[in-house]
Amino acid sequence: MDVGEYLSRIGFEPGPGPTLETLRSLHTRHLLSVPFENLTVHSGGLIRLDLLLLFNKIVKQRRGGFCYENNGLFSWLLAGLGFQVTLLSGQVKNGFTGCYGPPLDHLILMVVVEGRRWLCDVGFGSAAFSSPLSLDTADPQEQGHRAYRIREDTGTFYLEWQGDENSNEHKDWDALYKFTFEPQSLEDFSEMCVYHQSSPSSIFFCKSVCTLLKPEGRVSYVGRRLITKTFTTGATGGVMKHSRDLKDEEIPLVLQEVFGIVLPSPLTPKDEEITLPQVKY
Questions:
Q1: pLDDT confidence of residue 239
Q2: Cβ neighbours of 89 (radius 10 Å)
Q3: pLDDT digit string (tens) for 43-77?
Q4: Is 37 a known active-site residue?
Q5: Which of the following is catalytic: 69, 121, 160, 164?
Q6: Domains in the chain and their CATH numbers?
Q7: Which single residue of 4, 94, 119, 212 has CA 20 to 30 Å from 11?
Q8: Of the listed 9, 27, 30, 37, which one is catalytic?
Q9: Among 106, 146, 149, 218, which one carries the catalytic annotation?
Q10: Is 142 among the residues known to form the active site?
C-alpha cells in the first residue's frame, strides 16, 4: 500500500487524522474518481481478491472494480490511515424476484469513528450513497435527491432507500440489501467473487457495466448504451435521463474519454437477460 499514491488517485489531500470529516471526504472522492465496473470479466480477465493486484489495477492502472474490489481496497486504505474498519457481508435484494442474494453476495464496511458506527460502501454502483451512513439511527438520512435509512429487525439490518425518479412525489421505502455485524475477511468472499464472474444469475456475468458518480449526476455504460443522469433540485426536482446507443468501435473511446479506462484486452460488450436464481434467501 502506497497511501500517498492512493490518495492522489482519488484527488484527496491528507486530512488531520481519522476523523469523521476525513472519512466523509474519502468516501465521496472515491466514488467521484473510481468507477464501479466489471469490464475485466468481459475482456478475457479474471478477478482475484489479492490486495496487491487490486492496488495495481485500481490505483496504478486507474481502473475500477465491483464491490469486492472497490470496498476491499478501500478498507485497506482506511486501515492504513488509522480507521477502525470491519468487513461485513451484505445480501442484495433481487429486483426481479424480491428475494435476497446468498451470504457474502456483497462486501460492505463498518467504520467506527469517534465512538460512532458508520456504513461505508464505495462498491454499489448507481444506487450508492455518496457519504457514509450512520448505523446508530433508524431515522432517514437525506443525501441530495435521495433518502436512505437503516432498519433493524432481530439482529439483521436493512439498508432502504427512496430512489431517483419523481422526487417531488411520495415514494415508498425499498430495501437495497441486508446485513449483520458478523466480521468477515476478504478471503471469505472468494467463492462468491467467482460466482459473480461465471453465473448466468449474476448481473456481472450477463452485462458489461461501468458507472461513475459525477457532481451533477451519474454516467453509466451498459452493454452498448451510454446513460447520463442529471439530478435537478427545487420544487420540480428529479432526474433528467439521456441514453444513446453505441457502436462496438465507439466503446473503447467512450470508456477512455468518459471513465478514464484503457483496457489491456479487447472488450466483448454484453447485455443479456439475467437467469432468475433457483435458490431463494
A1: 81
A2: 22
A3: 999 999 999 999 999 999 999 999 999 999 999 99
A4: yes
A5: 121
A6: 3-196 (3.30.2140.20)
A7: 119
A8: 37
A9: 106
A10: no
